[in-house]
């Protein structure tokens, strides 16, 4: 068994019982905030009728629950504030809250519509234990106007259930915590099973035979006998380091110095892994809950801190919303989500830097200063058709270009003519011989050497086209050209045309 297999997983569930109502309470529009005198409900159309989709705490105290027809709610309570339910806005808010909770652990999974699951294994000691972490979450989110109920358990399902239901332990949870649906819950009650403990104390084979395999699986996931994976909002990066401050820091220069120290630490970790970073992401957590992020990318894997610090400096200077400490930063996190293998390099005897890394560093600096979308590079594309074999895209190249051996001439010219120039008065032996003589503009050229053909057929998924036969030719003055015949003699064309597509240097 590996060392990681001994780590006991612990999960913290955050349940926001009145998330939609508290979202509206944060909006500046008047008349949206509920009060004990005028509670707030959110309604949506269900099968042609308006029903309550969410309520605030005051409406719930008056007995108004989701699912109740709006007409019945108005009849029970006068002076209701009614708003439209917006599930998409609630989802966006839940995702923002998940980003806020990344300060506690990188593994945060939203459970729509109103719950977050945090994997806190190995993170609770940073906040004085599990109790201290739970208190810190409640206090921090409470300052933002959100009511949150927390629970910590060994499985995500148990944490989710205990955050919702007032139970001392997993065994005391009601069968509704298994999320089996109303019909199965009623059937379990009729069978005398009211809690998870009642079900877990009986053979699960009988439960599966009577209530379906889903019921037995739900119990096993609740008690930890079956896998219960979560889907975190972001994938755990290969390398991640952070620095937390005992008190909020309001000096931006000090925080940037901490970022440089984190980069040096991350580069040491990359060196131990034999890798280099291609993408570096820095997140600055403010005491008021705002999270500011900055990302830089490199054209080649690097594991030296100095050039990455320079890239972050240029990127921060280009931000439309400058890095503002507000009431102070209380944490800085640096992650390297994209890495690649990087073998140690050896400089030449004259210690001259190779041209490739110098060019990549220049492009990285330009992209950081001007913005990655304003700098275009040619990217190789999987196509045999020459004019489609490359395209301009922002950022660094996605794959390496094929490089011929130094002893061999290039197979294709570096630049192509767009569109190819038509050749006239072509003299060539049929069916597959290269031309011996042709006219380019007003000049007649005589070919003394030729190599080919390189046959390129039209791509079958596009509109049908003619086959091309490419030749590398040299005329009597030493000029080297790249020409092609458009069409095959006797098969596709009776008199194919010839074109000049490129010039060799």
How would you sum up this structure, described in words?
With 505 residues, this protein is of the alpha+beta class. Among the domains are: 237-345 and 354-398, 2-Layer Sandwich (Dna Ligase, domain 1); 416-503, no CATH class. Helix content is 28%, strand content 30%. The protein has helices at 19-25, 57-61, 70-76, 87-100, 130-143, 156-164, 182-190, 196-200, 204-211, 213-223, 252-273, 305-318, 355-370; strands spanning 11-15, 40-46, 49-55, 81-84, 108-111, 115-119, 149-153, 239-249, 275-286, 291-302, 329-341, 376-380, 390-394, 416-428, 435-440, 443-456, 468-475, 480-486, 497-503. The strands form five sheets. A six-stranded antiparallel beta barrel has the order 14-15-16-17-18-19. Strands 5-6-1-7 form a four-stranded antiparallel sheet, with helices on both faces. Strands 8-11-9-10 form a four-stranded antiparallel sheet, with helices on one face. A hairpin with a 2-residue loop joins β2 and β3 (49-55). α9 packs across α10. This is Protein ImuB.
Task: Compute the average pLDDT.
Answer: 87
CATH topology of the domain at 237-345 and 354-398: Dna Ligase, domain 1
Strands across the major sheet, in which order?
14-15-16-17-18-19
Radius of gyration from the alpha-carbon trace, in angstroms: 33 Å
Beta strand count:
19
Largest sheet: 6 strands, antiparallel, barrel
Strand content: 25-35%
- Classified by CATH, the class of the domain at 237-345 and 354-398 is Alpha Beta
Q: Please estimate the helix content.
A: 25-40%
CATH superfamily of the domain at 237-345 and 354-398: DNA polymerase, Y-family, little finger domain
Q: Could you give the distance between the termini?
A: 61 Å
Class of secondary structure makeup? alpha+beta
Weakly predicted, low-confidence segments:
1-5
What general outline do the C-alpha atoms trace? elongated
CATH architecture of the domain at 237-345 and 354-398: 2-Layer Sandwich
What is the number of helical segments per DSSP (H or I, 4+ residues)?
13
Keywords: DNA damage
Protein name: Protein ImuB
């Amino acid at each position: 068994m590996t060392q990681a297999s001994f780590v006991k997983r612990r999960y913290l569930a955050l349940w926001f019982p009145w998330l939609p109502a508290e979202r509206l309470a944060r909006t500046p529009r008047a008349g949206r905030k509920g009060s004990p005198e005028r509670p707030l409900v959110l309604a949506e159309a269900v099968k042609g009728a308006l029903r309550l989709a969410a309520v605030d705490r005051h409406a719930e105290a008056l007995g108004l629950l989701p699912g109740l027809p709006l007409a019945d709610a108005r009849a029970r309570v006068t002076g209701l504030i009614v708003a439209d339910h917006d599930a998409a806005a609630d989802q966006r808010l839940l995702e923002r809250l998940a980003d806020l909770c990344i300060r506690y652990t990188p593994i945060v999974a939203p459970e729509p519509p109103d719950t977050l699951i945090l994997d806190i294994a190995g993170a609770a000691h940073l906040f004085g234990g599990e109790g201290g972490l739970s208190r810190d979450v409640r206090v921090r989110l409470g300052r933002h106007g959100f009511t949150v109920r927390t629970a910590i358990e060994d499985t995500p399902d148990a944490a989710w259930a205990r955050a919702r239901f007032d139970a001392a332990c997993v065994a005391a949870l009601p069968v509704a915590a298994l999320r089996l649906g109303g019909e199965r819950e009623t059937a379990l009650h009729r069978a005398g099973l009211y809690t998870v403990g009642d079900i877990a104390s009986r053979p699960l084979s009988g439960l599966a035979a009577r209530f379906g395999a889903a019921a037995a699986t739900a119990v096993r996931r609740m008690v930890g006998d079956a896998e219960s994976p979560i889907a975190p909002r972001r994938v755990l990066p290969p390398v991640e380091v952070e620095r937390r401050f005992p008190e909020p820091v309001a000096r931006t220069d000090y925080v940037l110095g901490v970022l440089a120290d984190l980069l040096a630490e991350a580069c040491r970790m990359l060196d131990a892994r034999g890798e280099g970073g291609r993408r570096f992401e820095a997140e600055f957590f403010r005491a008021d809950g705002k999270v500011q992020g900055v990302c830089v990318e490199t054209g080649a894997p690097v594991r030296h801190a100095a050039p990455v610090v320079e890239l972050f400096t240029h990127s921060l200077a280009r931000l439309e919303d400058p890095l503002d400490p507000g009431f102070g930063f209380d944490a800085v996190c640096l992650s390297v989500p994209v890495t690649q293998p990087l073998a140690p390099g050896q400089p030449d005897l004259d210690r001259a830097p190779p041209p490739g890394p110098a060019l990549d560093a220049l492009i990285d600096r330009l992209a950081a200063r001007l913005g990655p979308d304003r700098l275009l590079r040619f990217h190789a594309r999987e196509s045999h058709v020459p004019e489609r074999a490359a395209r301009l895209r922002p950022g660094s190249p996605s794959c390496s270009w094929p490089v011929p051996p130094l002893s061999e001439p290039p197979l294709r010219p570096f630049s192509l003519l767009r569109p190819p120039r038509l050749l006239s008065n072509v003299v060539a032996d049929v069916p597959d011989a290269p031309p011996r003589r042709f006219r380019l503009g007003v000049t007649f050229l005589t070919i003394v050497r030729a190599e080919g053909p390189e046959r390129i057929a039209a791509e079958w998924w596009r509109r049908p086209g003619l086959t091309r036969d490419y030749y590398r030719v040299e005329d009597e003055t030493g000029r080297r050209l790249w020409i092609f015949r458009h069409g095959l003699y006797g098969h596709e064309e009776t008199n194919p045309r010839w074109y000049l597509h490129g010039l060799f240097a």
